[in-house]
Amino acid sequence: MSYLAQCLCQSVGLRVKHLTPEISACHCRTCRQWGGGPLLSLHCGDDVILSGEADITRYTSSAWAERGFCRHCGTHLFYFYNQRAAYFIPAALFGDDLPFTLTEQIFIDQKPDYYGFSQCTATMTADEAIAAFTAQDKSDAR
Ligand SMILES: [Zn+2]
Ligand SMILES: [Zn+2]
Question: Yes or no: is domain 3-141 CATH 3.20.20.70?
Fold first, then answer.
């Protein structure tokens, strides 16, 4: 069993073996400027097989991450955290049949007031999220 995420024009596919259908919303300025709204993604780790790689354009959005999009249809394909080789793939690319739940909102202090989710989720500020990711990096290094 595996799960296939696809772009609008289906040139690019991302196949994931293990999927926890828990959505994390990122409200950071970069995600919102990139996508026009918060990034609703699934943590897919490094267990991702790309197809149509020649059609993926990667944009280096910071020293620690790149963002991929389809060069034909513009679909946002992933946020790739290079310190841990971890892909975060937008939930919508998997279709609507999976039992997704919104469980976490990060960079909550950068969320503008003009929208909000009604779900009750865990939240992290920018400082808390960065501290959490850095702590994971350190524990991996051991
Ligand atoms: Zn496409
Ligand atoms: Zn973000």
Answer: no
